[in-house]
Specification:
Elements: H1 2-7, H2 13-30, H3 32-44, H4 50-97, H5 102-107, H6 110-117, H7 119-152, H8 154-161, H9 164-201, H10 203-208, H11 212-264, H12 270-311, E1 332-339, E2 350-357, E3 362-366, H13 373-379, E4 388-393, E5 396-397, H14 403-408, E6 410-414, H15 424-428, H16 437-446, H17 450-454, H18 473-487, E7 491-495, H19 503-517, E8 521-525, E9 537-542, E10 545-550, H20 552-558, H21 561-584
Parallel strand pairs: 3-8, 3-9, 6-7, 7-8
Antiparallel strand pairs: 1-2, 1-4, 4-5, 9-10
Helix pairs in contact: 2-4, 2-7, 3-4, 3-12, 4-7, 6-9, 7-8, 7-12, 9-11, 9-12, 11-12, 16-18, 18-19
């Protein structure tokens, strides 16, 4: 882990060296004051060399001014090193997240992922900046001050040094407790972030169901866990600091007693005794800094550990020798496919499924919810690997095709449309970022949303809000269709694209979808069976199995499940019309 952490210093090697050099100079200047004090007490003052006293004072003042400039350099550029390293880590994490399979996001909440990218990396920055400075500079200062103290009085120095092992043993013990406590606190912080992210995203649902109190209870549960974890971490930190500080305070007591006895016994003169008292703080300061480094190290190390946990997640892996698709026709062949999600391996979602769609044809998937229709839609772009069987595109196993190459040829329109915060233009060109203005306009017209866009004051540059909150359901859906028009894929997957819309809006959307389907191999997951009567083939999926398949006419005449589903919907529609007409009369 340390090697991986150090690798992030490489782009800023020169600046880091200058930062360390400046820190060492700051520490060296710190040793000047006790040296000058000793010189004055033992030489300049007794010999009444007033001129050199003033010169020595001026030299110290100049050095202190230099130290001020060096401290600014260390504070500014040192923190910038840490900030740039944090940006690099965040960039690497984001890039890696983009490569992870769907299963990772199935098992990890968005708020927890965000916590690792923000809160955890902030403490890593502090460690990146102050860690080497505190460790290297403090260690060298400690050695330098120890040697200087030896030059004043060997016996007093060894008496002080004898206290250091006690400090090391105590620090090591409480450091372990603090490490565990801070790691727990990070986990609870991530829990709070996840709860808040979920609640804010679903605020409209919360208000609609007046479930403010329910969300408050969920938040408070995580909040209490956070407070409890903080209690443990701060208790461990308090013990660590208070006991460590007590031991360093003992240093001063030991010097007062031992130095007084040495002075009384004429083992040391008054000037050296005074200098030793002044100088011992130069020895103690790096010791306390090293103690502080322990806490900083725990915070940064636990944050970096959580960063590494994400970075060590296995990305989506393409097969060796995976190739680019060329001249795509669009024929899909699902052969004996079985599948279960990792979250519930015992529950088979698809059980030996066999389906085939020829170039330019339309296959409709119908059946009860949870039967496996959407899962089939997720398997075709290879979002999940099948457990057994194979899916072929133009006779080629999709596992042998590069992910980007496969997915560039597949357009997906779902019931739950996801739009990015930004403008209408931003969301349309997401289908093809290099599209021209005319291509964007054409895509909007084909999706039946151009006229609406033109009524907006800013047209295509109108902001849609987070996840398209400023748009209606139908407008969102048409925007997602325009996005797919611009992408112009050979294969189209419509996953209940109109099931959440009212009848009037559905007609507009259906017209756009019919236009979109022309010349493309299409798989439609349909809730309203009236919309897929013209499909080349209809497959009834239930409990992960294909129960029936054929054309609409064939299934009405010879099928059982499809016929029942269709008649049930038709009967419900007739009852609705009858009730509606009676209410008017």
């Amino acid at each position: 882990m340390l090697k991986r952490f150090i690798s992030y210093y490489k782009p800023y090697k020169l600046l880091f060296i200058l930062d360390m050099a400046a820190s060492l100079l700051i520490s060296a200047i710190g040793l000047v004051y006790p040296v000058v004090t000793n010189k004055m007490l033992n030489d300049l003052i007794p010999n009444k060399n007033y001129r050199m006293i003033i010169v020595a004072g001026i030299i110290v003042l100049i050095l202190y001014f230099l130290r001020m400039l060096l401290k600014y350099f260390v504070q500014y550029y040192g923190h910038m090193i840490g900030t740039n390293m944090q940006a690099d880590m965040r960039r690497d994490m984001f890039r890696h997240l983009e490569t992870l399979p769907f299963t990772y996001f199935d098992n990890n909440e968005t708020g927890r992922i965000l916590s690792r990218m923000t809160n955890d990396l902030f403490d890593v920055v502090e460690l990146a900046h102050h860690g080497p400075e505190n460790l290297i500079v403090s260690s060298l200062t400690l050695i330098g001050s120890f040697i200087y103290l030896l030059s004043i009085n060997v016996y007093l120095t060894f008496i002080i040094f004898a206290c250091v092992p006690i400090l090391v043993v105590v620090s090591s013990y409480y450091r372990k407790k603090m490490h565990a406590a801070f790691k727990e606190r990070r986990a609870t912080t991530a829990g709070i972030n996840a709860a808040v992210e979920s609640s804010i995203t679903g605020i409209r649902v919360t208000k609609a169901f007046t479930n403010n109190e329910t969300e408050m209870k969920k938040f408070e549960k995580n909040n209490e866990l956070f407070v409890e974890s903080c209690k443990k971490s701060y208790s461990a930190m308090g013990q660590y600091h208070s006991i460590s500080n007590f031991i360093t305070d003992v240093f001063n007591v030991v010097i007062i007693i031992a130095g007084g006895l040495f002075l009384y016994a004429n083992k040391i003169n008054f000037g050296d005794y005074t200098t030793f008292i002044v100088s011992v703080n130069v020895f103690i300061n790096p010791v306390t800094q090293l103690i502080g480094f322990m806490e900083q190290f725990q915070n940064g190390a636990s944050g970096f550990e959580r960063f590494i946990e994400v970075m060590d997640q296995e990305p989506e892996k393409e097969n060796d020798g995976a190739f680019e698709l060329k001249n795509v026709e669009g024929e899909i062949d699902i052969r004996d496919v079985s599948f279960a999600y990792e979250v519930d391996q015992e529950k088979i979602v698809l059980d030996h499924i066999n389906l085939k769609v020829k170039k330019g044809q339309k296959l409709a998937l119908v059946g009860h919810s949870g039967g496996g229709k959407t899962t089939i839609c997720h398997l075709i772009p290879n979002f999940y690997r099948v457990n057994s069987g194979e899916i072929l595109l133009d006779g080629k196993n999709i596992n042998d095709i590069k992910f980007d190459s496969l997915r560039k040829n597949i357009g997906i329109v779902q019931q739950d449309v996801f739009l990015f915060n930004g403008t209408i233009r931003d969301n349309i060109i997401y289908g093809r970022p290099d599209a021209t203005e005319q291509e964007v306009i054409t895509a909007a017209k084909r999706a039946n949303i151009y006229d609406y866009v033109m009524t907006l004051p800013n047209g295509f540059d109108s902001e849609i809000g987070e996840r398209g909150v400023k748009l209606s359901g139908g407008q969102k859906q048409r925007l997602s269709i325009a996005r797919v028009f611009l992408k112009d894929p050979k294969i189209l997957i419509l996953d209940e694209a109109t099931s959440a819309l009212d009848n009037t809006t559905e007609i507009l959307i259906q017209d756009a979808l019919d236009e979109l389907c022309k010349g493309r191999t299409t798989i439609v997951v349909a809730h309203r069976l009236s919309t897929i009567k013209n499909a080349d083939e209809i497959a009834v999926i239930d409990n992960g199995k294909v129960l029936e398949k054929g054309s609409h006419e064939h299934l009405i005449q010879n099928g059982k499940v499809y016929k029942e589903l269709y008649e049930l919907q038709f009967r419900d529609k007739k009852e609705y019309i009858s009730t509606h007409n009676n209410s008017i009369l």
